[in-house]
């Protein structure tokens, strides 16, 4: 259950989008919310006061018209923003981290390397929010590949959906498109494994008024996911953060990297 949401905010427009989502989820889930701003270099007392004032104004603007929330503002100073955010996660009993989309230049907000470091090491689900509307999620897609982190991503997405929303689990048996139908026996065997796997996963989910469906496809993973996202008009894509051919547990999967660079909707990444 999500009881404490952390939003890492850097005063960029992308972070404002993420803050809007964090506030929406905090209200929906009745969770407390912490807004964390990290200054990468030691500011003067006057600059620190201006930063706090700017974050307070931003927070007040986004909270207008919202139901009362338990909100805390924190300012931290250090040369390594990712490490400070990860440290706060470990100390703050947080259940979900919300980030805005990354930038190529650090002067525009969190650089891509900062976001990547957080995603590689975060012990909690990370939601990269890119949808400026910030409406409650109605349709979500979870990419399932039998890995523990994909299962955790499915469960995390389930928690973020309001009553009446739809969650679809998609497994792609990755084969070359031209050979997708070459071995029907193998496809039938893999589909049977998936049906048993997803049945056990669904049984383990806590009862909620969320519509659940699943699909098994053969083809290229990214192409199948792109088509499913478009067909469903998904607002949230849940992914495991692993790489099946990684040399280190801290390497993000290539599919996850692709969607982080080109987010089609909000992304939920779970290690």
UniProtKB/TrEMBL annotation:
Family matches, as Pfam families? Usp
- Family that this chain belongs to: Belongs to the universal stress protein A family.
Q: Which GO terms describe its cellular component?
A: cytoplasm
InterPro entries according to UniProt: Rossmann-like_a/b/a_fold, Universal_stress_UspA, UspA
Q: What SUPFAM superfamilies does this protein's entry cite?
A: Adenine nucleotide alpha hydrolases-like
Protein's name according to its UniProt entry? Universal stress protein UspA
Residues of the UspA domain: 1-128, 137-271
Q: Which Gene3D superfamilies match?
A: HUPs
* Keyword terms: Cytoplasm
According to the UniProt entry, the coiled-coil residues are: none
Subunit relationships: Homodimer.
Tell where it localizes.
Cytoplasm
């Amino acid at each position: 259950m999500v009881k404490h949401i952390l939003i890492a905010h850097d005063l960029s427009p992308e972070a404002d989008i993420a803050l809007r989502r964090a506030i929406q989820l905090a209200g929906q889930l009745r969770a407390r919310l912490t807004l964390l701003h990290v200054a990468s270099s030691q500011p003067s007392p006057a600059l620190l006061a201006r930063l706090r004032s700017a974050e307070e104004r931003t927070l007040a603007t986004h909270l207008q018209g919202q139901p009362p929330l338990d909100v805390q503002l924190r300012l931290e100073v250090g040369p390594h923003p990712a490490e400070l955010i990860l440290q706060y996660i470990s100390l703050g009993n947080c259940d979900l981290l919300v980030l805005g989309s990354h930038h190529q230049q650090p002067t525009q907000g969190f650089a891509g390397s900062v976001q990547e470091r957080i995603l590689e090491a975060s012990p909690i689900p990370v939601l990269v929010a890119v949808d400026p509307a910030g409406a409650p999620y109605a349709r979500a897609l979870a990419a399932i590949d039998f890995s523990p982190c994909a299962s955790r991503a499915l469960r995390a997405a389930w928690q973020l959906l309001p009553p009446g929303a739809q969650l679809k689990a998609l497994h792609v048996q990755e084969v070359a498109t031209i050979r997708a139908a070459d071995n029907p026996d193998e496809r039938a065997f893999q589909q049977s494994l998936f049906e048993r796997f997803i049945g056990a996963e669904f049984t383990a989910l806590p009862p909620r008024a969320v519509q659940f469906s699943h699909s098994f496809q053969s083809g290229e993973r990214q192409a199948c996911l792109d088509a499913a996202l478009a067909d469903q008009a998904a607002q949230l894509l849940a992914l495991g953060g692993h790489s099946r051919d990684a040399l280190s547990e801290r390497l993000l999967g290539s599919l996850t990297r692709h969607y982080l660079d080109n987010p089609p909707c909000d992304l939920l990444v779970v290690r």
